[in-house]
Specification:
alpha+beta, globular, twelve-stranded mixed sheet, two-stranded antiparallel sheet
Length: 362
């Protein structure tokens, strides 16, 4: 049983919503396989229309609070894949890691969680439980009232309650669904990228149970092939229409333009390169420390003032003038050894000084 919601489990491989390392990059575009349509019926107005291809939207909203198409990335994608692109080229920024049991650990490339939503608000989020059937934990995200009339405050932990009865795998999850979030940079296998994408990531989100299963399986497969070295390798998000409980639905999975042998070879090259770079950076770091140790205090002070001004204060005296009132210490005359005594062996020296075999006085 996990201590914190979002820790990896043997079930859905649930991970905390948000980047594991805490390094949050701005989201510059959202990849979708559905879009909202103008519908006068308020009961169906919020439901998106399923698409058999990807559309890329800006995080910005129009006056009707609808997503705006990201023109630059859309033009780049259509040049590569046509007007109805079913593949999206993506590269991940992080490597994957495994625990001692060989399970995939949480990463910054993708996350999954069980989520119960009311409109756009997440009411409850859980870790999905264990593969053996043991239920996991959940956290109430919004104040809500259960069917038993009990009020659950936001932040309440529900131990051993996930998944609950609101999850129905026969109905694409039912009210509570597995949610998948994948993030990376828009970059083709040849290295080309759309303009206006530097410094940010594109994100794909899905609430489909089949997509959750296939994305998880894809990451497991490719992470094991590459021993976790997935950063900056070329991949595709690929959408296919599959039969669902309400007709055909878009299902997204992970592919790579490289063969298995190519993936293994490139991953090995990356591993060796990283090891070489780590050793080189460590050598440079140690050499730089040695150089700084040889510099005078005044030079070190100049370096600190230029590169680490926050560490320099006016109270620190860097140049110390000698006190003119102090007399220099005079050398003390101590009896030394004669040249003859210097070249004597220990026996000769001690024998000449204490009568041979007699012990030295203490």
């Amino acid at each position: 049983m996990s201590d914190n919601i979002g820790n990896v489990s043997d079930g859905w491989n649930i991970k905390q919503l948000g980047l594991v390392s805490g390094d949050r990059l701005p989201i510059i575009a959202n990849i979708r396989v559905g879009e909202k349509i103008d519908d006068p019926n308020p009961k169906t107005a919020s439901r998106p229309r399923a698409l058999d291809h990807f559309k890329v939207f800006s995080p910005d909203l129009d006056a009707k609070k609808r997503r705006i198409v990201h023109r630059e990335i859309t033009a780049w994608l259509e040049d590569l894949e046509g007007e109805r692109p079913r593949r999206f080229p993506i590269m991940f920024l992080h490597n994957e890691t495994f625990d001692e049991a060989g399970n995939l650990m949480p990463s910054d490339n993708y996350i999954q969680y069980m989520g119960l939503y009311a409109g756009r608000k997440c009411v409850c989020r859980g870790d999905g439980g264990q593969a053996g059937g043991e239920r996991g934990d959940a956290i109430v995200m919004q104040d809500t009232v259960g069917k038993n009339g009990k009020t659950y405050k936001a932040g309440t932990r529900l131990t051993g309650k996930c998944p609950c009865a609101k999850y129905d795998p026969e109905k694409n999850g039912g009210e509570c669904k597995p949610h998948t979030v994948v993030g990376g940079i828009a970059r083709a296998a040849d290295g080309t990228t759309p303009i206006m994408t530097s410094g940010g990531i594109v994100v794909f989100r899905s609430g489909g149970i089949m997509t959750a299963t296939e994305i998880k399986s894809g990451f497991n497969r490719f992470a094991r092939l590459t021993q976790g070295f997935m950063a900056y390798l070329p991949f595709y998000l690929v959408v296919q229409m599959r039969p669902g409980s309400h007709g055909n639905v878009p299902v997204v999975h992970l592919e790579s333009p490289l063969t298995e042998d190519q993936l293994i070879a490139v991953a090995q090259q990356r591993a060796m390169k990283q090891l070489t770079q780590d050793n080189e950076f460590r050598r440079i770091h140690l050499a730089a420390k040695d150089v700084l140790l040889l510099e005078s205090p005044a030079t070190q002070a100049d370096v600190n003032a230029e590169f680490s001004p926050d560490t320099v204060t006016d109270a620190v005296v860097l140049d110390i003038e000698p006190d003119a009132t102090l007399e220099p210490e005079q050398p003390v005359d101590e009896p030394g050894l004669t040249d003859e005594e210097i070249h004597m062996t220990d026996d000769e020296f001690f024998g000449n000084n204490n009568g041979g075999n007699e012990e030295l006085p203490l």
